[in-house]
Specification:
Number of strands of chain A: 20
Largest sheet of chain A: 7 strands, mixed
Radius of gyration of chain A: 24 Å
Largest interface: A-B, 157 and 157 residues
Oligomer: homodimer
Structural class of chain A: alpha/beta
Number of helices of chain A: 19
Helix content of chain A: 40-55%
Shape of chain A: globular
Distance between the termini of chain A: 67 Å
Strand order of the largest sheet of chain A: 1-7-18-17-14-12-10
Strand content of chain A: 5-15%
């Protein structure tokens, strides 16, 4: 039995002291991350250049379909692209020249200026899961999401220390008609948290309503001069954009709001079975989409995004957290930096149906690469389950615990005099123990991330307490977090104006989603 | 609902095809890894230099205790160190000068030459958990380990594709008297697998018996000229080596066998609460231990190791997979490379009592950094549970699945013509699907790591199949792996000679472990 297996525990005094210190710590909301780590470039320059070259070849030879959006085709024609029907072939290098007007970095303004976040450079911003139609928790099981669920996830995100931004809709409120749902979603973001947020992007109309509601909240003049929303625009891989997304893209860009261009590519389904092939396709789509934002309004803020996975060769189902996905996340960040735009990828993706070891392995192998790669906006970083079909309350708790750990990791190693701790080593000397030494006592509270959900007790104690898995312990934590939520409030006049706008729009809009 | 949440599944034909392809794949044993990734250096040069400077200050000012081993003290005195009692203060720079004779890289020879492994440079070698007194599985629960358990873990390691080396004793056979146990352990390594292995290091006598048994297996002349064993030597942090470990270290080095010097440092207990402080202490201990190997026999192979974690400030219990541990793993590898010796760290460490999400998060946040940092010997990479007190059969299955994925990741992105897949993108075109295209068909079997345990089925299918967690599915996998084991055989004459030696030694040795 090696020393590596012998668990050393302090005496009862040390334990009491440790518990007292822990109780006095209230997890405070953290600002977005400024990374103090070197950025990991996993691909060689040669590999990146091959991908870049192939992306331009795809744009030039195969082209991109811009479907059911004549205005996009008009813009491309005017810019010198070869437009035949809805197929747009783009001369080599044109997209890059157009994208040069997009900002390398920009600020997204939250209604609470202290919660504004930065995209680009050394900034990393964590945002929760977006898009699932289902929710699950251990009490109620798996079910369709409701507006009440969305409110709860916004509150949880508002409370979680390392969630910096409300990106995407944590869960679709399926109890609200699809044609009017975006109003409730956008209002919920604005009302129940003072974090920055995305704008509803499903259709041009939804995007327009989001921009108008932002105008009510921030003032129209402010919105035209500042980014207060991000619109998440998915291409329809391979090599296609649909009319809804194109209209929404133009709507956000026209109003100087941020656009994220995000191909969703599962290798073997929407892309080739090889990561280098997927990345060339993905980059081609991003180049085309980002260039379009600049054709609409030069200087409009834009982000290069990727949502990557692979399909199982056994069942054809999506897989996440595999080596291929890890490589593609690193590649995405390198490609975006060379292009000079901020990058979105991430976050805590998994295929598992419950918050078990599979979910955690897959999520960790997505999240840690995302941080090391220097991704600026980490979407889907908490609560994601089952390929994104489910927002899980327990998974949310487990993920935000990991996010807080990532935030510590991103600070790099402290080599100040405090960090070097030479006096502690001198004080303790050979064969001693550090728990009681002056340096430990002085740095007790600040030392280490305190997990909200990990269990470090003995096997005997863990057994006495019911042998709970991490998922089971997380069930109590999200309930506690909801109790901790404090409403940030909203100026009553603006709140009323938002509600008035929504009532008017509800009366105008059909229940069904507008046609493409 | 964004496209990122919409799971695309191929039709029934695609699924059938995928299943047929998967069945024909038998997971083959993989050679050890030659990394084709850039090595991640997370610490700045300035930070590394601070740690190196402080390590020398510790050696010079505070010194290291070499307890109950007069021969070590004699060697240090002769080398010019300041020896008072058992405290050895070592002049700045002396250790580095001594370590210069250690090889930068070396081969550990397995009895099957095709299974020999390399330590140093771009080599990465995965080895399973070592040291636990307990085993657990979902059928039998947690219990003391037996020799039969050890045999099973050796067989599982022999079968698992991405286990390259038998490092450490996967579980202590507690049913064998402690004073004689090493004989059964060493024999089991030699007999039930043809992978390379460590030597029993608990006492000088155990180390000597391991070397003698290796002499029987490989021939004494071969052993003197080639490394066939590694001895894992733990310091007794802070700043202490005990007599047993020192005697074993000298035994291995004298016979030109590899020595791993491994401080086991949990920040806040055996080291300061700050990672930079721990690393200075850890480096000081490694420098002293590695230098001693070269005082014993210049040129003897040696590895710089670290086993790192932190204690919980709430309970004083060990924690793994935290940001501090991640930083220390990266730092260990950087320090070893600058010193010019191979590095051991790793692997799949966790504190959790079961193979749940906590176990997986903690393990992944240890394993991925270990690979990216360029660690050469990744110990404890499969089966580790509960701070190393337990070797878990299910955790072993989950971990070796991750190891195989890491082995894919380590190959880097394929940017050959196959990897670029431009023809596939041309063939499929905008709006198509890649599953049926020629490139996918041609690369079907080689594409992606096929997980042995992840579940990618639909929620409905997963529910029908009993809603099993990854841990529950792993229970069936290790039983199947044991069935797949094929005895590699052993030359009967050597086998008999080994058994004879063991019988003789058993008669000579007391049941209790020899005194320090």
């Amino acid at each position: 039995m090696s020393r590596e297996s012998v668990i050393q525990r302090p005496g009862r005094g040390g334990q009491r002291e440790a518990r007292r210190a822990a109780r006095s710590q209230r997890a405070a909301k953290l600002p977005y991350i400024r990374r103090r780590l070197p950025t990991v470039e996993l691909l060689s320059d040669e590999a990146v250049e091959v991908i870049e070259h192939n992306a331009e070849t795809i744009l030039e030879e195969i082209g991109i379909e811009f479907r059911r959006d004549p205005e996009s085709l008009r813009l491309w024609r005017a810019a010198g692209a070869d437009v035949r029907g809805e197929r747009v072939r783009i001369p080599r290098g044109l997209c890059r020249r157009l994208i040069a007007t997009a900002p390398r970095e920009f600020t997204l303004h939250a209604r609470n200026p202290g919660r504004s976040v930065r995209f680009g450079g050394d900034a990393t911003v964590f945002s929760p899961v977006g898009g699932p139609p289902f929710v699950s928790d251990l009490d109620g099981g798996r079910r369709y999401g409701t507006l009440a669920d969305l409110h709860r996830f916004i509150r949880l995100s508002h409370v979680a220390p390392a969630i910096h931004f409300l990106g995407g809709c944590m869960v679709e409120p399926m109890d609200v008609p699809e044609g009017k749902r975006h109003l409730d979603v956008q209002y919920a973001f604005f009302r129940h948290s003072d974090l920055g947020c995305e704008g509803t992007p499903e259709t041009p109309g939804h995007a327009a309503d989001a921009v108008r509601m932002a105008g009510i909240l921030f003032g129209d003049d402010f919105v035209d001069g500042h980014c207060v929303l991000l619109g998440n625009i998915n291409s329809n891989s391979p090599l296609t954009f649909d009319g809804r997304m194109l209209g929404a893209l133009r709507e956000f860009a026209e109003h100087n709001q941020g656009v994220i261009v995000v191909p969703a590519v599962l290798a073997g389904a929407m892309g080739p079975v090889t990561p280098a092939g997927c990345m060339a396709e993905l980059l081609a789509e991003c180049l085309a989409g980002l260039a379009l934002t600049q054709l609409v309004r030069p200087g409009a803020p834009a982000i290069l995004g990727s949502f990557v996975g692979a399909i199982s060769m056994r069942t054809g189902a999506p897989t996440f957290g595999t080596a291929e996905a890890t490589q593609m996340i690193f590649a995405t960040a390198q490609l975006a930096r060379r292009l000079g735009v901020p990058v979105r990828s991430g976050g805590s993706l998994c295929s598992s149906k419950c918050a078990d070891a599979q979910a955690a392995y897959e999520s960790a192998h997505t999240l840690l690469p995302t941080l090391l790669a220097g991704v600026n906006l980490v979407t889907h970083s908490a609560g994601w389950l089952e390929g994104g079909l489910v927002a899980s309350y327990e998974k949310f708790v487990l993920d935000v615990d990991q996010l807080a750990m990532m935030q510590v990791l991103a600070q790099g190693m402290d080599v100040s005099e405090r960090g070097q701790a030479l006096d502690a080593i001198r004080e303790v000397g050979p064969g001693g123990h550090f728990l009681g030494c002056a340096h430990t006592q002085a740095n007790f509270e600040a030392a280490f991330h305190q997990s909200s959900v990990a269990d470090y007790s003995s096997y005997e104690q863990w057994s006495q307490e019911g042998r709970l898995t991490a998922e089971q312990r997380a069930n109590a934590v999200w309930k506690r977090m909801l109790e901790e939520y404090v409403d940030p409030g909203l100026d009553p006049a603006r709140d009323e104006a938002l509600l008035e706008f929504m009532a008017k729009r509800r009366a105008e809009l059909p229940d069904a989603l507008e046609e493409d």
